[in-house]
Structure to design on (759 residues):
């Protein structure tokens, strides 16, 4: 009998129940017990749901109140000193202090750093370790959740983050070698495995996703060492799980580790199946990741079945498990809940629950069960309707893209020459001041939008409201003396959604939430078809704002890579192709803005860096098409039109060539928290275009003094030419209040004036 298994289930709940419970608890409106009761309820509901959907072997300990890496750190007592007293007195408070900081009763603890989980949009908390530290079991979360499942009638496979990945995903605060801690950590893992065995767990899932990365010899040796050690423990059988890519040159290593089963991702890397089968020792379970855990499309079951049959022929029916490619954490819970998607589009999609159903169909088909063929037929019909749909394929898009030449993605003249023309056009002072786009989205702004969306406010009233807010914002900027103004982005809910809603080929769900970090969820748009811009998207508000002032008004767009990166994308064509389509739509928008008299345009690309593939060998191809896409958007304009871009959360060393090739006239970056260190890459590269290094951190309500900003600017001035520098905050101001924004910007303008006096 073929087993259907799952590696992890979304924990936020079909209606974000966990988010609401967490936030009630943080506001002090609910007790820890009641939070835990909600969590228990969700776990039970999710086990039932997975079982009903057709999975036999279910995960436990895949649930987390905040993050599974934080859970792991907490479980092994990798708790930095600053949180210890709190964690000892009140474990839940200590745990959340690590997650989100703690400010109360005279204690002020900053949170652990957060970073992206591989190439997903999920963020994990980065454990802080130091040389010589100890580890010990703290609490028994994996055992308790295993027993909780068993009491409810589910025999589960506890999920642990493996020891080597845990260390590789951590950082040391003293610069010491993370892997040097392995020998201290392993006995505690062994102890935990023994306890799980004693509790009756037959299998444990041990996640080692770092096996799909480029690993140096030390990391490879750590794997060999760790699993040789764990082989000697009194332990359940181990399923070693790898996902998000091919094992590549780590395959022989992974296959030889003494575990009892291996999970591989056959969606991202179907081509590795043959090699995996060759390397896998006899008698070992192969968990085949056949259904995409990273995207929302119904899978091609015929292809999956071919892989499954082939694998079964090698390992035998008892040794083959069918699974999603990775944990289903990265997709929404249940398509059934979506009542507003049209039926045709919905028939092309599968969320977590549906994906387990697809695996069930595969298993039934492998076993030749009645009904399997009918289910396969139904799936074939859905896929065929998508393939043939005129909503998906628009010949005019393909034709226009085919007609683009190399000259359509590069500006005709060099920046040095454009700079002269632009200087004449705008006559800006040295150290020109500007902002990144959004201004505070106050309660009133959000409320007006909600009322408009629910029909309580007419379109005319909503527009009038936005116009008033925009004018106020323009007057404010004039009054404090900013040089290049923005309209404030009041009309926008989200920088991707706003554009997606106006483009054809994008769809939006009502409840398609995916956890981003902790209680934060995002509802990524679904790009299902060729992208077409039926009408200008931003011209009206930009033109209106420009009409209010004689100063230059910057037009604001979200770049193609960022739109791609923060959406569920098509799986029927290359990402690069979808990106080019979005770029083409934006090119039209850029030209319309220029035509409407907007002389400065900013195309935000905060997600360029995070889109880097997991393996270095794939970087160049990605950066090439990312740069080309930016070129398609931005290169159609006259020399006098100034193109800006903005990138936050970026580290530039790996991508500086590409950033330079994007050839924006001005780039604004986030530098204040790193005290201008992020500029180094630009300096070493001798980056020739203009740069606005953010001079204050908008992620915090703190208002920096003029002196601090002057100091940061002087640091930048020491390494770059005065003519290259712009003065701006780190990022958009939409999450800030007016009060602090007003002070901070006025002081920023003062800082620029002081710098000018240096000249
Ligand atoms: N223009 C956007 C804003 O100001 C940029 C946001 C971002 O970089 N994340 O809000
Ligand atoms: Zn930003």
């Amino acid at each position: 009998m073929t087993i259907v298994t799952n590696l992890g289930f979304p924990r936020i709940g079909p209606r974000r129940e966990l988010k609401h419970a967490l936030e009630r608890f943080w506001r002090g409106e609910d007790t820890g017990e009641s939070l835990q009761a909600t969590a228990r309820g969700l776990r039970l509901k999710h086990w039932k749901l997975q079982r009903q959907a057709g999975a036999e072997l279910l995960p436990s300990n895949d649930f987390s109140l905040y993050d599974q890496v934080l859970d792991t750190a907490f479980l092994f007592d990798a708790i930095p000193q600053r949180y210890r007293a709190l964690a000892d007195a009140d474990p839940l408070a200590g745990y959340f202090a690590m997650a989100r900081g703690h400010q109360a009763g005279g204690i002020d603890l900053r949170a652990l750093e957060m970073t992206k989980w591989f190439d997903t949009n999920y963020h994990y908390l980065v454990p802080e370790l130091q040389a010589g530290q100890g580890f010990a079991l703290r609490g028994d979360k994996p055992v308790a959740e295993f027993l909780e499942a068993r009491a409810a009638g589910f025999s589960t496979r506890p999920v642990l983050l493996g020891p080597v990945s845990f260390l590789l995903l951590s950082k040391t605060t003293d610069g010491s070698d993370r892997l040097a801690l392995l020998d201290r950590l392993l006995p505690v893992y062994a102890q935990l495995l023994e306890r799980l065995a004693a509790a009756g767990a037959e299998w444990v899932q041990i996640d080692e996703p770092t096996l799909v990365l480029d690993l140096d010899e030390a990391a490879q040796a750590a794997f060999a060492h760790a699993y040789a050690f764990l082989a000697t423990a009194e332990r359940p059988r181990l399923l070693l799980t790898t996902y998000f890519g091919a094992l590549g040159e780590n395959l022989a290593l992974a296959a030889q580790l003494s575990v009892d089963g291996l999970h591989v991702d056959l969606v991202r890397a179907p081509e590795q199946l043959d090699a995996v089968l060759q390397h896998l020792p006899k008698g070992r379970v192969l968990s085949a990741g056949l259904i995409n855990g990273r995207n929302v499309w119904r899978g091609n079951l015929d292809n999956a079945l071919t892989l499954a049959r082939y694998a079964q022929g090698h390992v035998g029916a008892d040794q083959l498990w069918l699974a999603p490619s990775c944990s289903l954490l990265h997709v929404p819970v249940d398509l059934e809940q979506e009542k507003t998607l049209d039926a045709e589009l919905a028939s092309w999609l599968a969320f977590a629950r549906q994906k387990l159903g697809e695996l069930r169909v595969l298993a039934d088909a492998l076993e030749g069960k009645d009904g399997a063929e009918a289910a396969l037929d139904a799936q074939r019909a859905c896929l065929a309707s998508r393939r043939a749909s005129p909503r998906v394929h628009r010949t005019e898009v393909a034709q226009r893209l085919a007609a683009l030449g190399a000259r359509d993605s590069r500006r005709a003249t060099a920046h040095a020459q454009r700079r002269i023309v632009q200087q004449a056009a705008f006559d800006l002072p040295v150290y020109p001041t500007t902002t990144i786009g959004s201004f505070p989205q106050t309660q009133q702004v959000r409320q007006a939008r909600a009322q408009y969306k629910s029909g309580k406010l007419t379109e005319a009233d909503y527009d009038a409201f936005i116009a008033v807010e925009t004018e106020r914002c323009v007057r404010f900027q004039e009054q404090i003396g900013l040089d290049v103004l923005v309209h404030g982005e009041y009309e926008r809910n989200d920088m991707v959604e706003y554009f997606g809603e106006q483009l054809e080929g994008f769809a939006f769900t009502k409840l398609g939430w995916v956890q981003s970090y902790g209680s934060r969820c995002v509802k990524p748009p679904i790009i299902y078809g060729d992208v077409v811009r039926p009408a200008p998207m931003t011209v009206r508000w930009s033109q209106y704002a420009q009409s209010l002032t004689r100063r230059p008004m910057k037009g604001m767009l979200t770049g193609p890579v960022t739109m791609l990166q923060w959406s569920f994308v098509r799986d029927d064509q290359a990402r690069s192709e979808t990106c080019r389509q979005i770029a083409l739509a934006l090119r039209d928008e850029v030209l319309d803005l220029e035509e409407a008299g907007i002389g400065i345009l900013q195309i935000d690309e905060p997600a360029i860096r995070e889109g880097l593939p997991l393996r270095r060998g794939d970087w160049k191809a990605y950066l090439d098409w990312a740069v080309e896409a930016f070129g398609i958007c931005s290169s159609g304009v006259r020399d006098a039109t100034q193109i800006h871009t903005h990138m936050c959360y970026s580290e530039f060393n790996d991508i500086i060539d590409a950033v330079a090739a994007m050839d924006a006239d001005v780039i604004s970056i986030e530098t204040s928290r790193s005290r201008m260190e992020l500029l180094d890459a630009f300096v070493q590269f001798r980056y020739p275009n203009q740069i606005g290094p953010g001079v204050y951190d908008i992620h915090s309500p703190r208002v920096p003094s003029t002196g601090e900003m002057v100091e940061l600017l002087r640091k930048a001035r020491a390494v770059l030419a005065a003519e290259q520098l712009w003065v701006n905050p780190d990022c958009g101001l939409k999450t800030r209040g007016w009060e602090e924004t007003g002070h901070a910007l006025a002081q920023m303008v003062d800082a620029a004036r002081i710098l000018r006096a240096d000249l």
The two ends are 79 Å apart (CA to CA). The chain is about 45% helix and 15% strand.
